[in-house]
Amino acid sequence: MADAYFSLFTLIVLIPLALIAFVYFLVRPRPVKIPIKNRHVFITGGSSGIGLALAHHAAAQGARVSILARSRNKLEEARNAVRLATGIDVSVFAADVRDYDAVKRAVDEAGPIDVLLLNHGVFVALELEKQELSEVKFTLDVNLMGSFNLIKAALPAMRTRKDPQQPVSIALVSSQAGQVGIYGYAAYSASKFGLRGLAEALQQEVIADNIHVSLIFPPDTDTPGFAEENKRKPELTKIIASSSGAMKPEEVAQKTFDGIKSGSFIIPCNLEGIALSLATAGLSPQRSFLMATVEVLAAGILRIAGLCFQWTWYTSIEKWHNQRKGSPQRS
């Protein structure tokens, strides 16, 4: 009987504790806390949607805020909105993220950055065959090359900052379409998947300088651009993406800063995002030994869940095509 109790104790207590201790030893980089108050937060795509919500949130936390976007008029509207809501005056910079020289001038004028928050992006849902290559290139240039431009412009000053003991952050806003490819998102998903490779490699390059990289994965978000995006979405895209509800920009902003302040590399924004992040953890950095343990234990189960999602999506695609083949052709 004693042997049976000991075996049960080993199975329930000792093995899990040993796993947690082993994972705690392995996780890198180590946990960090990144303050926002009295720091300079520079936000791209900051004139509307998630970017404007991020500006509100940073200002409310006592940060010095700079926002960058293309439209001077929208930037002024955003500055007035933040001032009215928080009493804080933000700095605004008009530049196209595709233009490195313009971006460099804005970054230099803004001054040393403590939190570089890359939120800019464009999105068009359309089958690749129907999409012009110029539109594909525009998507990649804005979403991916724009991020390279900002990081290249800001990184030298971030590395040579006055207090290297104070951790600083580079945060990139990706998308759940940067975790899993969806029908009609070929160009967009390529640009957002690219951010993950950039972030993983960059974290290794800058960790010695106490610079910490985060990657945010919001779902569909109820922004002014979201309604426009839906007008062009293929029917199959709407069917497949319908399982994920839209979040409010303010909710995404809250999740973003919670993750940045804890130095998280992967920042999901809802329950579906947590499941996607666990399922796609792969070789990504993980600071939390508890989350790392969950990733280890949940890997097999989440792979089964992922296969179920794929079955659902491909069944929907097959059904949609069969219906089109069976319907009378319009003259």
Automatic annotation (TrEMBL):
The gene behind this protein is LOC107468903
Spell out the protein name for this chain: 3-dehydrosphinganine reductase
Checking CDD domains in the record gives: KDSR-like_SDR_c
Main enzyme class: oxidoreductase
Choose one Gene Ontology CC annotation of this protein and give it. Answer: endoplasmic reticulum membrane
Q: What family does this belong to?
A: Belongs to the short-chain dehydrogenases/reductases (SDR) family.
Catalysed reactions, as listed in the record: sphinganine + NADP(+) = 3-oxosphinganine + NADPH + H(+)
* Record flagged with keyword Endoplasmic reticulum: yes
Mostly located where?
endoplasmic reticulum
Check the record and name the InterPro entries matching this protein.
KDSR-like (IPR045022), NAD(P)-bd_dom_sf (IPR036291), Sc_DH/Rdtase_CS (IPR020904), SDR_fam (IPR002347)
| Residue ranges that the Swiss-Prot or TrEMBL entry lists as coiled coil | none
Membrane-spanning segments: 6-27
Where is this protein found?
Endoplasmic reticulum
Hey, which pathway is this one from? Lipid metabolism; sphingolipid metabolism; Sphingolipid metabolism
Q: What is its EC number?
A: 1.1.1.102
BP terms from Gene Ontology: 3-keto-sphinganine metabolic process; sphingolipid biosynthetic process
* Key words, A-Z: Endoplasmic reticulum, Lipid metabolism, Membrane, NADP, Nucleotide-binding, Oxidoreductase, Sphingolipid metabolism, Transmembrane, Transmembrane helix
The GO terms this record gives for MF are:
3-dehydrosphinganine reductase activity; nucleotide binding
This protein's source sits in the domain of life called Eukaryota
Q: Which organism is it from?
A: Arachis duranensis
